[in-house]
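Posting this for the archive.
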Amino acid sequence: MVMRIVRLGTPRVAGEGLRIGTVRRPPRGVPKAEFATRDFYDVWLPNLAPSAETMKLGQVAETPAQWAAFTRQFRAELATPEQGHLLELLAALSHRSDFSVGCYCEDEAHCHRSVLRALLLERGARLAEP
């Protein structure tokens, strides 16, 4: 059993399991009934997406210092008990089920997925290699 961190909208890999969208907004121009069949997500979990304000920091980050500011702010948002419980749940499920979490960004290194990956690993999640 393993959790994968994926780019939403990309073809699923064999055994990927349930795909969870950790994005603030659904995909534009895609009917809700087609989210799963078009490889976006099966379940939407916006609680693990950056706030609009934090997302803007990440989108404009061009330097390591700017990216570090985004990471700090996003980690602070996920430090609440509610978000912590969600991260703990996903980490525990990764030992018992195949599933994936993801976002639309092309480059994981410049996406909140990289922060989620680190936070999940800190909680003992079993993750597939990137």
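Residues 16 and 99 are 6 Å apart (CA to CA). The mean pLDDT is 96.
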